[in-house]
Amino acid sequence: MPVALQLLPPRSTAELALRAEALTGRTLSELADALGVELPTEPKRAKGAVGQLIERALGACGGCAPGPDFAALGVELKTIPVGADGRPRESTFVCTIAPFEIAYEEWPSSRVRAKLSCVLWVPIALAPPRRIQRPRLWRPSPAQERALREDWEELAGLVATGALEQLTAHRGRVLQVRPKAAHGRVRTLAPGPEETPLFALPRGFYLRARFTAGILADLEPGCG
User: Which of 78, 93, 101, 171 is at 20 to 30 A from 124, Cα to Cα?
Assistant: First the structure.
C-alpha cells in the first residue's frame, strides 16, 4: 500500500470548490487508491472512514474541533449518503453536546452555529460502487437559521436544566438530539434533576433528513 497523501488546506473558498468539483463522479474506492488510503470493509468503521477520506482529499484539518473543518475559510465539511433519488437516507451529525458548557452558550457563538454557518455538502450514493455526487456549498437562509435557532434554544435549554434523559429524537423540527457513543455502555457526566449530576449516554446534535433533503434540492451555487 502506498504512503497516504495529505493535501495542504485550500487557500480560498474558490480553491475548495474546485477541489470538491473535481471529485464528482469518482467512486470511493478510486479516491482511496489515489490517496493511498485503505477503506475498512466493516460497515460501522467504513462510515467514519468515508468522511475522513473526503477530508483528506480536500485538505480539511478541523476534525473534531469546535469550529468548522476549514477553519481559515469558515467552512464545515459534511458527507451525506443519498439514495437513487438524491435524497438523504439518515440524519446528519453536527457536533457533540457538552452538557455542562451548553448552559453558558448563546446561539450566535454556539458550536452548532459555528458548524453550520457555511457547509460544503458532499453527497455520496449509497448504491455500489458508491460514487461521489456533485458537492455544493450552502449557507442557511434567514428562515433556515431561524428554524435552527429555535430548535437549538429549546433543546439546549432542556439539556442545561437537567432534562437530558427525557430528551428523545422526536423533539425539534429540523434539529434533534440523539445518542453519540461507540456503544451503549459509554457514559458522561451531565446535569440532572434538581442540579444533581448524573451519568448519561453522550448525545449530539443532528440535522433531520428532511431538512438536509431540502438543502440539497434548493442549494445556491455558493456561500456568498
Answer: 171
